[in-house]
Amino acid sequence: MTVALAPHAGFIALVTIRTKDASVQHALVKMLSQDVESWVRHCPGFVSANYHLSSDGTSLVNYAQWTSEEAYRASFERNPDKEAMRRAIRDLAGVEDGPSMTGYRLERSIGAPRPAEPGEDLRATADWIRRGAMQLGSRLRKENPENPPAVHELTVLVQLMNNRAPKSARQLAAYDEVPVETMLDTLAGLTSRGLAEAVDGGDGGDSGDGGDYAITPDGKAALDAGREVRTEFLAKAVEGLGLTAAERAVLHRAGPLLERLARY
After folding, report:
1. Distance between CA 260 and CA 82 in Å, rounded?
2. Which H or E element spans position 53?
3. Bridge partner residues of 101 (DSSP)
4. Residue 206 pLDDT more than 90?
């Protein structure tokens, strides 16, 4: 049976015992499992014990998951025979060293993509994403530097920033799905504020849509300022919420997935 990494496991105790051969490994697993079944599994904060045997027979590793290091340490105080098991391990014929423990916390976990199950209803997941994206987007719009570009202007500046060659009003309008006349008004406003400029030598301009446009250094600075303010807000929010390392890892993995959804 395989036990998946538990997001609420705030502490991992990696316990290693060196053994002479495979027969000793199996004897140890039996002994240790009985101990876990009898009392450890009932301790507050216990998540799972997972015994791994090296293929060459020279070691046993227990990947033990606990909600916190404090819970792990406190579990020994609940066992009146805490030294008896350690002695039993060391006295077992074929045990060469151990047990030794190193504590860890889960920082990040990357798994293989799981295909959707046949008939799986993704609407609940989609609804959570929709609600979260709308609420977070609304909140981030309140975090602005001084004199920020409007939302529709930001979209244009981002497009000009992401494209190496200047873009025409017609190309930008097609991306934003707005009339060319509306885009020309937006570009006029950006140009008057020095955030964009009309240029020659682009890849799509013509006399009918006002030529090509590129972002200016001031436009790039405006984008950078907005990103910095919002990134700082999000960093403080993540810290202020007191998220666990596992929850932060989930958020870290969610970023690229949300970008993929946005590009769909």
Report:
1. 51
2. strand 51-53
3. 15
4. no
The per-residue pLDDT for 204 is: 45
Sign of CA pseudo-dihedral 180, 190, 223, 206: positive
pLDDT category of residue 244 using cuts at 50, 70 and 90: confident
- Burial (CB < 10 A; 0-12, 13-18, 19+), residue 168, is buried
Closest alpha carbon to 230 in 135, 144, 150, 136? 144
**Residue-wise over 93-102: b if at least 16 C-beta within 10 A, else e?**
eebeebbeee
Helix axes 151-162, 217-240, angle to 10 degrees: 110
Distance of alpha carbon 264 from alpha carbon 256, whole angstroms: 13
pTM over 0.70: no
Q: Strands 196-199 and 212-215, how do they pair? A: antiparallel
Best-predicted range by mean pLDDT among 36-40, 56-60, 84-88, 124-128?
56-60
Nearest to 5 by CA among 57, 47, 58: 47
**Residue 82, both tokens:** 């805490």
∠ CA 260-263-264, rounded to 5°: 90
Residue 222 pairs with which residues in a beta bridge? none
Confidence of residue 31 (pLDDT cuts 50, 70, 90): very high
At 144, list the tokens: 């602005």
Phi-psi region of 252 (alpha: psi -120 to 50; beta: other; left: phi over 0): alpha
